[in-house]
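Q: I'm writing up a methods section and want to include an example of the input and output format. Could you take the sequence below and give the corresponding predicted structure tokens, formatted cleanly so I can copy it straight into the document?
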Amino acid sequence: MLAGVFTFSSVNAFAQDDSTDVASDSVAVAADSVSEAPEEEPAVAIAEEIAEEPETEATFHQIVKEQFIDGGPEFMGIVLICLILGLAVAIERIIHLNLASTNVKKLLSNVESALSSGGVEAAKEVCKNTRGPVASIFVQGMMRMSEGIEMVEKSIVAYGSVEMGKLEKGMVWISLFISLAPMLGFMGTVIGMIDAFDAIAEAGDVSPALVAGGIKVALLTTVGGLIVAVILQLFYNYLVSKIDGIVNSMEDASISLVDMLVKHNLSK
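A: Here is the clean output for your methods example:
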């Protein structure tokens, strides 16, 4: 009985040792497989990286280019040509008017000094060496000095209208482009609406996608024409105010010139 008890206990001990060794071996194999498996990034980290990437915003140039293409190159191109030509004429007029501006007070003082020192001929030389419409009017007036003060006044008035026409040269073209650009935009609006209704008639159904395309073209052409008209109108108003200032200075200076010539004749 004792031998049997010892034998049974030894067998159980060996069985427990074997099962413990097998379990430990399986745990080690599982750990090795886990350690050898490739590490994968979690989906949450990838989503966070995607969310952190900055979105590229469209620049103003890209937006204008897209709207220009969507509006149709036919009418938008003509409106752009109106803007380019109007700006070219306006810039040329601005340069011309700035060169035509004269320091009237300085010119009058120089003419008065020349009259007192060298007479009418010296005053004419001073005016010839000065650029601008005011000096040109002075020259024309003093050329008729021998015919009397009345002829001087008539000459100044007549040549003043000539100089005013030179100042207003090109303003008609700017006003033409101001009127033409919105009309072209409205024409594009009408054509866009016609295209939208044609698309509806062909499809036989009122679809928002069909109507939206034509209406978008119509609105873009209208906006383009109005923007061109607004820009050119600003330049036109500036040029008109500049011309008015030069004309007013011409009138004031001509009156002062006549007074100086009268004084010069009386002093003689």
